[in-house]
Amino acid sequence: MHGVPALTYDEDLAASAQAWADTVDQTGNFAHSNSGNGENLAYYNSSNPSQIIAVLKYSSHATDAWYDEINEPGYNFDNPGFTSGAGHFTQVVWKDTERIGCGISGNYVVCQYDPAGNNLGFDLNGETNFAANVLPLIENAEMVCAQPNDDEGDSPDEEDQEGSDEEDIDLDDDQEDDDDEEDIDLDDEEDQEGDGENPDEEDQEGGDEEDIDLDDDEDDQEDDD
C-alpha cells in the first residue's frame, strides 16, 4: 500500500511478543515491554469468548485500527515526522522494518517489529528517517500482511470476521472492561526518545457494538544522528 516490502513473520519476535502478552494479561498492566523491539498493543473485549479469539487471532481488526491513524488523527506526508497519536500507523508502514511477530493472551494482542520504527534523525542521504520510511499511500494498492509458518499462527493480521453490526474508531484514554460490550483498545503511545520502544494504549467502552479504541499515543522515537 505504501511501496514497502512485505514483512517476514519471525518466530523469535513472536515468542517475545507472546511472553509480553502473557505478562500484560496476568498483570493487567497495559504498557510496553522493554524488549527494544518496535511494539504495538491492542485490547479487545466481548461477552462472547469465541468472538475474542476470532477477532484477535483471525481478523485484521488490530492492524486496521493501528493503520487507521493515517486518517485519525492523521499523518502529514508533506511534513514528515513524529506525529502524536499516529505512532502505531507509522510503525506498521515503516519501510526499514523487516520482521514481525505477534502474541495473543486473553483480551490482548502484542505485535513486535524489527528493526523498530519511529526513529528520529536522518538517513545516509540526509533525509529524515520519517520521510524515508513513511511513504505516501499508493492508490489501488493492497495491504500485504506477514503470515506465520503454519495455519494456527498467532498473527492478528488476517482478514476480518465481523462480530457485530457496527464498528467505531475512537481515540481515547481510559480502559474499561465490560462483559456486555465489545472493545478494541490500542495501547497509549508515549514519546520515548532514544530507546526505540513504541507507545502504550488504553481502552474504551463500546456498548452493543465493536469499538476500536486508539490510546493517546505519544510514540517512541529514537535519535539516529
How is the topology of this model organized?
Layout (H helix, E strand, L loop, with lengths): L7 E2 L1 H17 L10 E8 L3 H10 L2 H7 L19 H7 L5 E7 L2 E7 L4 E3 L7 H5 L33 E5 L10 E7 L3 E2 L6 E3 L7 E5 L5 E5 L1
Parallel strand pairs: 1-3, 5-11, 6-10, 7-10, 8-11
Antiparallel strand pairs: 2-4, 2-7, 3-4, 7-9
Could you explain how this protein is built, in words?
The protein is an alpha/beta fold. Strand 3 and strand 4 form a beta hairpin. The two termini are 29 Å apart. About 26% of the residues have low confidence.
Radius of gyration: 16 Å
The total of beta strands comes to: 11
Which percent bin holds the helix content? 10-25%
N-to-C span: 29 Å
Q: Which overall shape is indicated by the principal axes computed on the Cα atoms?
A: globular
Compute the number of helices. 5
Assign the structural class, choosing from mainly alpha, mainly beta, alpha/beta, alpha+beta, or little secondary structure: alpha/beta
What is the percentage of strand-forming residues? 15-25%
Q: Main beta sheet: strand number and arrangement?
A: 8 strands, mixed
Low-pLDDT runs:
150-181, 190-216
H/E series, N to C?
A: EHEHHHEEEHEEEEEE
Quote the average pLDDT. Answer: 75
Concise overview:
This protein is an alpha/beta fold and 225 residues long.
Task: Name a few traits of the molecule.
alpha/beta; 20% helix; 225 residues
